[in-house]
Write a structure and sequence with these properties.
- The complex is a heterodimer of chains A (500) and B (166).
- Chain A has 500 residues and is an alpha+beta fold.
- An eight-stranded antiparallel sheet of chain A has the order 13-12-9-10-11-14-21-19. In chain A, strands 3-2-1-4-5 form a five-stranded parallel sheet. Chain A has a three-stranded antiparallel sheet with strand order 7-6-8.
- Chain B is mainly β.
- Chain B is elongated.
- The chains are: A alpha+beta (500), B mainly beta (166).
């Protein structure tokens, strides 16, 4: 097993990986930018080293800085997490050339599958169904315009090297193609260091169904069932669940077999995710492969009992997958809500600042994967994910009710979160019925508006009491504490009366 | 005390005996327990709720029953320290939605713009946002350049309604 692992990431996923390493008795090295000196992952790791300024390109995306940190501090492996360098095959290759182990697939399948354009071509050749659209990318705006007119609006512009909804734009009319392609290229350049984008038909109301897969160096390939990630805003998932209400045992088997075929064909070794869109008639289309750990991996862990991060580390160390396909089953139901620093009232605009206070939910079947703490700063430079709230229940309804209660007791003060918004989604009749699709939030936006003022008076009162304690330590507050003196027990008083 | 919630100011005053509280001129039965600095149990009109609170210079952040409220403190100098654009519809001070960097400036000083025209693209947390003008007018000031890091209260540019020709 590895001597020491460098975690090339930040926030909750870095903390998640560090915890897995601790349980495997593997020492960890965190890397951080100047903006993250007091970040949670820095505190949690055995050692930590600063690799550059706040801007991601100069720190978390700086390949040489990360590799040098590993070499100078006695690490023999690098775990990239998700985002940042995790799907960069150039980084993967450089890590290996430096004599280190990259915890993930080999660079070749990563290059093939990580590119939406190239993997699309491969899948078409392998007979896997894909969405109509451009076969390859182009720098020529007129190519985008021509294809859009041919397949009809709306269309979707996607970054070939993208993920997590970054660099994606839906376009409804021809005159918006140019500005949208340019914006997607810029976003993709900043986030992924590549400006290759392409265009495909935008499917209306599909479900997003993905399959967790794993392969090892010993010829074993398995899938760990589906995750439904249809609840999205800005093409970014916020609520995920497994099993999906749309997937029958028969469909599960067909999609699972297709997912395994995809990674087998590309000789993919390590943990990954095959994403599909599922239309109303249960036709599924290959979307892409994520060649890394997913944000929403915990829900698979909750229903299968398998620790996917430890599995990644074991496979990277050359071990065989310690279970067979037929030994796997889905036990119960799991839901994840992503706690982002964002304003649900203002188009989910990111919110940065200081977390003045937080209190995590607890209880049976409740898991909280967090990268922050009371007093932590949320810098403007990075993805605004703060934490993930995951619940497990014996069935979907138990999990749903458990999640609503957990969200109610999830307190984050100082930055805005979509905590309340997600409660509203989980209480929506369409969600209760399992009637979900990727434009769920847009199509039910009127029902999802909350003007909840049920607790507003209580909130006002708390502010007034808080002001009280700031200005004068009034006697009444003290009187409620134990061990106070008789003078304090008599309640509000003042010498010689008069008005306050 | 006075609090600004969204666009409305509210008056909140607990009675001296702390057995009632006056909120916007309505008196409610009131009781509370202080658990710690950030946690109170509050009973208003017979309903107990757990309430969590934190504050900074200009805001109270309060969570009750799963809902988080942001209140602006109304300071004695009469300024509410609230955010947002200038309310005057003849002139708009364009501010970013949050701290970020300037990706692209879409207009030039002196340029005529009509409602809905894009003015400037700002990026923060890996997301680009285009800010549009809400009035017809002329770009009278541009205070930033491409690549610049800006705070949320920075006036990026000013758009003014054209004065009717005399």
């Amino acid at each position: 097993m590895f001597k020491k692992i460098l975690i090339a990431n930040r926030s909750e996923i870095a903390c998640r990986i560090i915890r897995a390493c601790k349980e495997m008795n593997i020492p960890t090295l965190a890397v951080y930018s100047e903006a993250d000196e007091f970040a949670q992952h820095v505190k949690l790791a055995d050692e930590a080293v600063c690799i550059g300024p706040a801007a991601p390109l100069q720190s978390y995306l700086n390949m040489d800085a990360v590799i040098n940190a590993a070499l100078e501090n006695g690490c023999d492996a690098i775990h990239p997490g998700y985002g940042f360098l995790s799907e960069k095959h150039e980084f993967n290759k450089k890590v290996r050339e430096a004599g280190l182990v990259f915890i993930g697939p080999k660079p070749e399948p990563m290059k093939l599958l990580g590119s939406k354009v190239e993997s699309r071509i491969t899948m078409i050749e392998a007979g896997v169904p894909v969405i109509p659209g451009m076969k390859t990318s182009s720098k020529n705006i007129s190519d985008f315009e021509e294809m859009a007119e041919k397949i009809g609006f709306p269309v979707l512009i996607k970054a070939s090297d993208g993920g997590g909804g970054k660099g994606m734009r839906v376009v409804h009319k021809l005159e918006d193609i140019k500005s949208s392609v340019e914006a997607a290229m810029r976003e993709s350049q900043t986030a992924f260091g590549s400006e290759v984008v392409f265009l495909e038909k935008y499917l209306e109301s599909p479900r997003h169904i993905e399959f967790q897969v794993a392969g090892d160096e010993h010829g074993n390939f398995v899938h760990l069932f589906e995750r439904e990630c249809s609840i999205q805003r800005r093409h970014q998932k916020i609520i995920e669940e497994t099993p999906s209400t749309a997937v029958s045992p028969e469909l599960r088997q067909r999609m699972g077999e297709t997912a395994v075929k995809v990674i087998q064909a590309s000789n993919y070794t390590n943990v990954g995710t095959v994403e599909f869109l599922l239309d109303k008639d249960n036709n599924f289309y290959f979307l892409e492969v994520n060649t890394r750990i997913q944000v929403e991996h915990p829900i698979t862990e909750m229903v299968t009992g398998i620790d996917l991060v430890k599995l990644q580390i074991r496979i990277a160390a050359g071990e065989a997958i310690p279970f067979k396909q037929e030994e796997l089953s889905q036990n119960g139901h799991s839901i994840e809500c992503r706690i982002y620093a964002e304003d649900a009232d203002n188009n989910f605009m990111p919110s940065s600042g200081k977390i003045h206070f937080m209190k995590e939910p607890v209880g049976p079947g409740v898991r909280y994967d967090s990268g922050v703490y009371s007093g932590a700063e949320v810098p403007i430079f990075y993805d605004p994910i703060l934490a993930k709230l995951i619940v497990w229940g014996k069935d979907r309804e138990e999990a749903r009710l458990r999640m609503i209660n957990a969200l109610k007791s999830n307190v984050v003060l100082g930055v805005k979160t979509s905590n309340k918004f997600m409660q509203t989604v989980l209480e929506n009749q369409h969600f209760i019925d399992g009637d979900t699709c990727t434009n769920f939030i847009d199509s039910h936006s009127d029902d999802l508006k909350f003007n909840s003022t049920a607790s507003l008076l209580h909130a006002f009162a708390a502010a007034a009491l808080s002001e009280d304690t700031n200005q004068t330590q009034t006697v009444n507050h003290v009187a409620r504490q134990l061990n106070s003196s008789p003078w304090l027990e008599i309640g509000y008083w003042e010498i010689a009366g008069g008005s306050r | 005390m006075e609090l600004l919630f969204k666009t409305k100011k509210h008056q909140v005053q607990p009675a001296k005996d702390n057995k009632s509280i006056n909120i916007d001129d309505v008196l409610h039965n009131f009781e509370f327990r202080r658990i710690d600095k950030n946690h109170l149990k509050i009973n208003i009109s017979g309903v107990w709720q757990d309430v969590f609170i934190a504050e900074d210079k200009n805001h109270y952040y309060v969570n009750a029953e799963g809902t988080t409220y942001h209140f602006d403190k109304v300071h004695n100098d009469g300024n509410d320290y609230g955010e947002g654009q200038s309310a005057n519809e003849d002139i708009i001070n364009v501010k970013p939605p949050m701290p970020g960097s300037i990706v692209k400036i879409l207009v030039e000083q002196g340029q005529k713009v009509t409602e809905g025209d894009g003015l400037i693209i700002v990026e923060a947390m890996k997301m680009e946002t285009t800010i549009y003008t809400t009035i017809d007018g002329i770009v009278t000031e541009i205070n930033v350049s491409t690549g610049e890091q800006v705070d949320a209260d920075k006036v990026l540019m000013v758009v003014e309604k054209e004065k009717a020709s005399e």
